[in-house]
Amino acid sequence: MLTFRRFLILSTAALALAACGKKDEAPVAAQSDAVVATDAAAVAAAGPTPGVYEVSDAAGKKLDTTTINADGSYASDMADGHRVAGIVKMVDGKTCFDPSGKAEPECYTDSALAADGSFTATDAKGAVLTVHPKAK
């Protein structure tokens, strides 16, 4: 869910650093598509971005608040009061949540980020969830 986020953050940081250069310096050559693809692959391999996210369904009903930790663990506090925890990782370009116990992993295809940092996550059955980073 967060691969694109990391790529966006890394790209933004690189552009910000480039903008800080002196005016008399020669312009930096644009990265080739191969380099950008390699960077995107490295970000995808790194896994989802740690943080706290609020997840809602297509009707806007809040489903859960999910915390993703730097070590790849996650915990989802569901709207009905129960908690699901496990490991989250990238698998074939999808964000996959693998809960502890006998439940099967659930994988999502994430959209590009909106201006507010939110994105959609679509499961294998086509259900679309909206994910908002929770303000700290």
The figure for the number of domains is: 1
CATH architecture: Beta Barrel
Computed CA radius of gyration, to the nearest angstrom:
17 Å
What is the strand content?
35-45%
Amount of helix? 10-25%
CATH fold name, please? Lipocalin
Pick out the low-confidence regions.
1-23, 25-29, 31-44
Structural class: alpha+beta
Largest sheet: 8 strands, antiparallel, barrel
Mean pLDDT: 77
Number of helices: 2
At the first level of CATH, the class is Mainly Beta
What is the strand tally?
A: 8
Cross-sheet strand order for the largest sheet: 1-2-3-4-5-6-7-8
Amino- and carboxy-terminal Cα gap: 19 Å
Order of helices and strands: HHEEEEEEEE
**Shape summary:** globular
Describe this structure in words.
This protein has 136 residues and is of the alpha+beta class. It is 23% helix and 37% strand. It contains two helices and eight strands, in the order ααββββββββ. It has an eight-stranded antiparallel β-barrel with strand order 1-2-3-4-5-6-7-8. The radius of gyration is 17 Å and the shape is globular. Mean pLDDT is 77; it is low at 1-23, 25-29 and 31-44.
Brief overview, please?
With 136 residues, the chain is α+β, with helices and mostly antiparallel strands. The chain has two helices and eight strands; from the N terminus they run ααββββββββ. Residues 1-23, 25-29 and 31-44 have low confidence and may be disordered.
